[in-house]
Amino acid sequence: MEEDRGEILVGPWKQIHSAIWLIGLAILFWKGWLWPGILVLIAISSLTQAALQLIGNRQEARQAAQAARAKGADRLPATCPQCGAPISAAEVRWTGETTADCPYCGSHL
């Protein structure tokens, strides 16, 4: 069964989340704040997990967009059909995953 990647932490984010729990439990046992402290640790853990998932999802989306743009760079014309300027994948203004505009005249490529 395939898991939904949006609900789990992967890579270094999982280790950061685990470290929060280990350090938090060590502090709770050291100070003797078990009952109220465990609720605070759960809240901190939940908020951190949500933030780490957001960061991970943004990185994943950025990588997917870069991969799609690399595929779309093969389909770019050598020159702009509107102004005749030379077109480079690094210089165009990407408006979507596979759509771009001319950096000189702004026409859709």
Chain-wise SSE layout:
Elements: H1 12-31, H2 34-73, E1 93-94, E2 100-101
Antiparallel strand pairs: 1-2
Helix pairs in contact: 1-2
Write up what this structure looks like.
The protein has helices at residues 12-31, 34-73; strands at residues 93-94, 100-101. By secondary structure, the protein is mainly alpha-helical. The chain has a two-stranded antiparallel ribbon. Strand 1 and strand 2 (100-101) form a beta hairpin. The longest helix is centred in the middle third of the chain and has 40 residues, at 34-73. The chain starts with 11 loop residues before the first helix and ends in an 8-residue tail after the last strand.
Record keyword descriptors for this entry.
109 residues; 4% strand; mainly alpha
